[in-house]
């Protein structure tokens, strides 16, 4: 089985690319982040015509997650247990955002995750990010004995090697000790970064800002991951980052990450 994750940065804008990606790599399960649309706004007919079932969660132009599967799609769950919410306005209600969706696909429990960005270390959104990760870790501890894949845009670069220039990010989110400790917590609990052994660094990234030709100069970050439970990690036979999908006109600023299971 071949599983992939991709922050597509608007599914409506890039559905043709998604369809071509599914065909080119014969993907069985694709987790998407930043779909940026409600379910009724998404052009899914071409994907469904290819034999994929779809599960989506989204609200208008922000966030949004989805799972596309041609090996079954069961027990869909929008949001994980205990997922915290966020108030879009200072005096507005605190509500869960469309940042997590889970489904069982071909016997594997797949979670498509779009971790909050955090904005700046002194921003309330940073506190929200750390709380979100802590609640996810609490939930994920109960899933470790299953074949589980926690996949998506984690908005964390776990090591200095995962950043093109750590000096530039010294005072930024994504690399702060609390964020890195939060990511390490999942590894301490037994989850495995199953892609890294097959894509050793340095200078191996999954995200390149559109700013100043960052992709062409390979000035990127590694922030998209597939973390597998112990039993799932034991099944991994290969993995790669489809860097070429970041190239060309109209590309997302993230590249897909692909994992093969026996």
Summarize this structure as a short list of keywords or feature phrases.
262 residues, alpha+beta, six-stranded mixed β-sheet
Written account of the structure:
The protein is α+β, with helices and mostly antiparallel strands. The protein has five helices and twelve strands. The chain has a six-stranded mixed sheet with strand order 3-4-2-1-12-11, with no helix packed on it. Helix 3 packs parallel to helix 4 (177-188). The chain starts with a strand and ends with a strand. The mean pLDDT is 97.
Give the N-terminus to C-terminus distance in angstroms: 7 Å
Structural class: alpha+beta
Helix content: 10-25%
Tally of helical runs: 5
Principal-axis shape equals globular
Sketch the major β-sheet: 6 strands, mixed
Low-confidence stretches: none
> What is the spatial order of strands in the main beta sheet?
3-4-2-1-12-11
Write the layout of secondary structure elements.
Layout: E1 2-7, H1 11-25, E2 29-33, H2 45-49, E3 53-59, E4 62-69, E5 74-78, E6 100-105, E7 108-114, H3 124-140, E8 148-153, H4 177-188, E9 192-193, E10 224-228, H5 230-233, E11 236-241, E12 257-261
Parallel strand pairs: 1-2, 7-8
Antiparallel strand pairs: 1-12, 2-4, 3-4, 5-6, 6-7, 8-10, 9-10, 11-12
Helix pairs in contact: 3-4
Brief digest:
With 262 residues, this protein is α+β, with helices and mostly antiparallel strands.
């Amino acid at each position: 089985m071949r599983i992939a994750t991709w922050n597509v940065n608007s599914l409506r804008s890039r559905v043709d690319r998604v369809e071509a990606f599914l065909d080119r790599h014969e993907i069985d399960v694709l987790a998407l982040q930043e779909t940026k649309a409600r379910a009724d706004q998404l052009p899914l007919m071409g994907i469904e015509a290819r034999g994929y079932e779809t599960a989506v969660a989204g609200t208008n132009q922000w966030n949004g997650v989805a799972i596309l599967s041609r090996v079954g799609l069961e027990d869909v769950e929008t949001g994980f247990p205990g997922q915290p919410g966020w108030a879009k306005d200072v005096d507005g209600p605190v509500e869960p955002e469309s940042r997590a969706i889970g489904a069982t696909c071909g016997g594997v429990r797949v979670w498509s995750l779009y971790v909050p960005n955090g904005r700046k270390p002194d921003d309330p959104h940073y506190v929200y990010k750390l709380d979100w990760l802590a609640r996810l870790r609490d939930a994920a501890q109960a899933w470790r004995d299953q074949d589980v894949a926690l996949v998506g845009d984690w908005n964390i670069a776990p090591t200095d090697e995962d950043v093109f220039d750590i000096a530039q990010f010294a005072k930024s989110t994504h690399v702060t000790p609390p964020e890195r400790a939060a990511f390490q917590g999942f590894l301490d609990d037994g989850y495995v970064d199953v892609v890294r052994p097959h894509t050793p660094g340095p200078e191996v990234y999954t995200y390149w800002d559109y700013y100043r030709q960052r992709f062409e100069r390979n000035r990127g970050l590694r922030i998209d991951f597939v973390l597998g439970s112990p039993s799932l990690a034991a099944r991994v036979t290969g993995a790669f980052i489809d860097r070429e999908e970041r190239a060309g006109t109209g590309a997302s600023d993230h590249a897909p990450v692909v994992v093969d299971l026996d």
